[in-house]
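Reply to dn_fold:

You asked what the input looked like. This is it:
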Amino acid sequence: MKKTKLPSLPPLKPRLRGLEARYASIQEEIGEHILSVHTYSDKAKKRIITRVKTLLDEHKLKDLAFCEENVKKAYDEASTRAEERLKQIGATLDYTYKEIEFQESIEKYTALLYGDFQRAKETIIGQVKLYFRLLKEATEKKRKASLQFLDKSEIIEEGVDRIVTEGAVVRERVTKAGHKYYAAKSRGEISKEIKLLFEKTFGKLDFIAIDCKDGIRRHYQASSWFKMQARTRMRECQTHAVRDRCKQWQNDLVRVSSHDNPCKRCADFEGEVFSLSGDHPKYPVLDNFPPHPNCEHHIDPTSEVAIQVEEEYRSLAA
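and this is what came back:
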């Protein structure tokens, strides 16, 4: 059976440009601060970490304003669209439904997105602290030390002990388990190596480390992560808006939008009909939707009668 293609909601991307630009500027300033320090000192550490915290705190009110404005706008767009569709398909309005639930949903997703932003900022501060931990190890008076080059995820997950190891002497450029080891060097040389390592890591400004649902820790630039997370939460909010309207109008079925070229994780949802309650004898329950971050798919109300009419219309048009 040919899938029904529904028109898309207004794109979320344009309203995220200001957020993306703001955090691009923040990440560049943080990168300049930490990479300006090449030798460890408690004074430098305190100064830079305080500056980073202050910089991030300065944007709390802007973050909250962004969340309040854009979550509500996304919810209202999906809610209004769903109500129009429910009227078209002849759904029955439950006049006892308390519309305060709409506001509660908006407040819920506003709080979720704002919380996401604050936790991401904590990971940024953690990355800066890690830089100074490594720098301190390199500048301490150690007779022998080695620097192990690791990829970014291992730097974050396994910490200082595997990067600077006291007393370890290894041969030059020996490859072991896919990693390169370097012979013991002077404190100055180790400081330089750490600086180069973090220029490689922080030069890309991948300050945010997130443990994703698939169990993989991924690293993002602040600008791209804040944009992605806002877009993801706003789409989740829009899905919830349709659920709320369907509950108000006593409607159980929804159809997922079609985008012609879905990814593997979206393929099972593309253009299909689902039950919100899970009680329908024919259609499966809508679960784990949207299926991934940045997903563009959304849902619209439908009904058995609407589905039958659509199928008859396609048969006549064929």
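The radius of gyration is 26 Å.
Hope that clears it up.
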